[in-house]
Write a structure and sequence with these properties.
Length: 145
C-alpha cells in the first residue's frame, strides 16, 4: 500500500504516453481529410488544348464568392468538367458563358479524388480571351484583389 505523498511511476508514465498515442493515431486521419479538401493544383506537365461546346454552366450559389464556377464542355463524344475561377472574378471581368457557346481552352488535366477535371488557364470565346492563370499555372484572380 502506498503512503500519502508517494507517486505511482507507472501511472505517471501512462499520463504522459497516452496523449502521445492518441495524437499519433489521429494525425493520419487529419492529414487525409486536409488532402481531400485541398483544391487541386495546376500542373503544366498535363496541359492540353481543346475545342468544345458548353453543355452546362455550373455557378456557385449566390453569396459564395470564393467558390469556383465551372463548365461541362462537350468535346466530340467526351464531356470535360472545366474549373474556371471564382464567380466574382468572372463578374468583375464582365464574362459569362451559356449553353451552346463554342470555346477553345487551354488547361491542366488533374484528378481531385476520383474525378478527372481540367483547370482552365485560358478560355477563348469568339474574339474574347479570358486569361485565368499565368504560364506557370498561378491564378491571376488572386492578383486582382
Amino acid at each position: 500500500m502506498r503512503r500519502s505523498g508517494e507517486t505511482n511511476p507507472s501511472g505517471d508514465f501512462w499520463k504522459l504516453i497516452f496523449p502521445a498515442i492518441v495524437l499519433l493515431c489521429t494525425l493520419p486521419l487529419v492529414a487525409q481529410k486536409a488532402q481531400e479538401t485541398s483544391p487541386p493544383k495546376y500542373d503544366v506537365h498535363t496541359e492540353t488544348k481543346m475545342k468544345g461546346t458548353v453543355e452546362e454552366v455550373k455557378l456557385p450559389p449566390k453569396g459564395s464568392k470564393k467558390e469556383v464556377a465551372h463548365l461541362l464542355v462537350k468535346t466530340g463524344t467526351d464531356t470535360a468538367d472545366v474549373y474556371l475561377c471564382p464567380k466574382s472574378f468572372l463578374d468583375d471581368m464582365g464574362v459569362s458563358f451559356n449553353k451552346g457557346d463554342e470555346i477553345t481552352l487551354t488547361g491542366s488535366k488533374v484528378k481531385q479524388g476520383e474525378a478527372d477535371l481540367i483547370l482552365a488557364r485560358e478560355v477563348v470565346k469568339g474574339t474574347d480571351t479570358l486569361v485565368l492563370r499565368d504560364e506557370k499555372g498561378n491564378a491571376v484572380w488572386s492578383w486582382h484583389r
